[in-house]
User: Which sequence fits this backbone?
C-alpha cells in the first residue's frame, strides 16, 4: 500500500512539473508571392506568438512575385518577437530573397539558390532607377537588421555594383568565386556560397534535419495552412482573376445603363466589383482613396440610371472615374517608374477588351440555351409546337394608355384594363405619361408619347 502511494505521488509530481515539448510553427511560402499572402503570414505569426511557440520556420520555394507583398511580409517578420527561420527548400529568388533575409536564421538544402532580386516588369525588363533604388535599399536595410552582408544584398538587386573584398566576421576577405562581384552581373548564391559568405547559417536536407540543427528535434511542429477565406482572397487577388472581375463588373454596370430598371447585367457587374474591391481592400491592394474614387464613379452611374433620363454627363463622368480607380488598383504600393504605369495601363486596356469579347461570346452562348429563352420570353411559345409568337394585341393599335414605368426605351404601360410590356420609338417617356400604341409586331408593342 505504501509503495502504491509513493508511486502515485511520483506520477503526480512528474505530471505537474514536466516540461512540455517546444512548439514550432511551419509556414509554407510557395509559388508566386502575391498580395493575398501577407495576411496569411501575419496571422500565422500572431497565432504562433499567442500559443507560445518558440520559433516560426518558413518553408520557402519561390521564384518571387510582387515586391510590395514581399515588403509587407518582411515587415511582419522583423516585427515578430519569435525566432524566425527561413528554410530555403530549393530556391528563394527575387522577392523570396527579401523575405529570407528578414529571418533571424537561414538554412538551405543542397543545390539551393538565393538572390537575383532586381525589379522587373511583366515583360522581364529591368525596372527604372527609382524602383531599383527602392529594392536595393530594402534588401540592404533588411540584411543590416539581421546581421548579414549588406554588399551582397545590394548586389542581388543592382548589377552595376562591383567589389573585390568583403568584410566577413570582421576580416577583409578577397572575393574570387562570386560571379556577381563583377559589374553587369547580379548575385545569386548557391548553398555553399551562401554559407561561405554568411548569408546562410547552415545546410539541412529535410525539415527534420533542420530541427536537429536548431536543437528542436523534440519540438511539436504545427503546419499552418491558409483558411478558406485566405485562399479565396489569394484566388481573387490573382492578377488575371482580379482584372477579369473588374472588367466584367465595369461592363456589367455599363450594359445596365442601356436597360430599363435593374437587371441581370447590373447584378453581375455589382457582384464582380464587390468581389474585386473587397478582396483588394483586405489584401491592402485597394486603399481607402481607391475605394472612394470607384465609389464616386459608381454613384454617378447610379444617378444616371435612376434619376437622369438618357445618357449624359453623369454617366460619362462615372465611367471615366471608375476606369481611373481601376487603373490605380493595378499600381503597386511602391515607388513606380514609367514602365510600371505603362504596364498598368496596358493591363487595364487588355482587361477591358478581353472582358468585352468574353461577355459577347458568353451572351451568344447563353441566348442559345433553353434556360435563356425561358428567362427572356417565359410566356411565348414557339411556332413549331403549334403556337404563335403574337400576343393577340393587334386590335389594340391606336388605343391609348398610361406608362407605369419610365420607358427608356422599354417598360410597362396600362392600355385599357391590361398591363402590357411595351417599347417606345426610342425616345424617353416618363412614368405617368400618356402613350398610344402605334404598332404591334408579334410580341413587340411599340408606343408613342401623346403630346398634351
Assistant:
Amino acid at each position: 500500500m505504501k509503495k502504491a502511494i509513493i508511486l502515485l505521488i511520483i506520477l503526480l509530481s512528474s505530471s505537474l512539473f514536466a516540461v512540455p515539448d517546444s512548439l514550432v510553427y511551419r509556414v509554407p511560402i510557395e509559388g508566386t508571392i502575391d498580395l493575398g499572402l501577407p495576411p496569411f503570414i501575419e496571422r500565422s505569426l500572431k497565432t504562433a506568438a499567442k500559443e507560445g511557440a518558440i520559433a516560426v520556420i518558413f518553408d520557402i520555394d519561390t521564384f518571387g512575385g510582387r515586391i510590395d507583398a514581399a515588403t509587407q511580409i518582411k515587415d511582419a517578420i522583423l516585427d515578430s518577437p519569435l525566432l524566425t527561420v527561413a528554410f530555403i527548400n530549393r530556391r528563394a529568388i527575387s522577392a523570396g530573397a527579401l523575405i529570407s533575409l528578414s529571418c533571424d536564421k537561414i538554412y538551405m538544402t543542397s543545390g539551393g539558390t538565393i538572390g537575383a532580386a532586381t525589379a522587373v516588369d511583366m515583360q522581364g525588363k529591368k525596372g527604372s532607377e527609382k524602383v531599383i533604388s527602392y529594392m536595393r535599399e530594402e534588401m540592404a536595410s533588411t540584411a543590416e537588421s539581421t546581421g548579414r552582408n549588406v554588399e551582397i544584398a545590394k548586389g542581388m538587386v543592382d548589377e552595376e555594383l562591383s567589389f573585390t573584398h568583403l568584410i566577413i566576421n570582421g576580416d577583409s576577405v578577397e572575393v574570387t568565386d562570386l560571379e556577381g562581384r563583377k559589374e553587369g552581373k547580379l548575385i545569386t548564391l548557391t548553398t555553399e556560397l551562401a554559407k561561405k559568405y554568411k548569408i546562410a547559417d547552415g545546410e539541412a536536407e529535410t525539415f527534420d534535419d533542420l530541427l536537429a540543427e536548431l536543437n528542436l528535434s523534440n519540438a511539436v511542429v504545427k503546419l499552418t495552412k491558409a483558411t478558406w477565406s485566405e485562399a479565396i482572397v489569394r484566388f481573387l487577388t490573382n492578377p488575371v482573376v482580379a482584372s477579369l472581375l473588374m472588367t466584367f463588373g465595369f461592363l456589367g454596370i455599363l450594359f445596365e445603363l442601356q436597360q430599363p430598371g435593374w437587371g441581370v447585367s447590373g447584378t453581375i457587374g455589382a457582384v464582380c466589383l464587390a468581389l474585386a474591391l473587397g478582396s483588394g481592400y483586405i489584401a491592402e491592394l485597394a486603399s481607402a482613396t481607391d475605394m472612394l474614387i470607384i465609389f464616386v464613379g459608381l454613384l454617378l452611374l447610379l444617378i444616371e440610371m435612376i434619376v437622369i433620363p438618357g445618357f449624359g454627363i453623369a454617366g460619362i463622368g462615372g465611367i471615366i472615374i471608375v476606369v481611373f480607380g481601376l487603373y490605380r488598383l493595378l499600381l503597386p504600393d511602391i515607388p513606380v517608374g514609367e514602365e510600371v504605369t505603362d504596364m498598368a495601363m496596358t493591363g487595364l486596356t487588355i482587361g477591358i477588351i478581353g472582358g468585352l469579347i468574353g461577355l459577347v461570346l458568353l451572351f451568344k452562348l447563353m441566348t442559345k440555351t433553353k434556360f435563356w429563352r425561358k428567362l427572356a420570353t417565359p410566356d411565348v411559345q414557339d411556332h413549331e409546337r403549334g403556337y404563335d409568337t403574337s400576343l393577340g394585341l393587334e386590335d389594340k393599335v391606336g388605343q391609348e394608355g398610361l406608362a407605369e414605368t419610365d420607358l427608356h426605351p422599354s417598360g410597362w404601360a396600362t392600355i385599357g384594363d391590361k398591363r402590357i410590356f411595351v417599347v417606345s420609338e426610342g425616345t424617353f417617356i416618363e412614368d405617368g405619361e400618356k402613350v398610344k400604341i402605334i404598332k404591334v409586331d408579334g410580341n413587340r408593342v411599340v408606343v408613342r408619347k401623346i403630346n398634351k
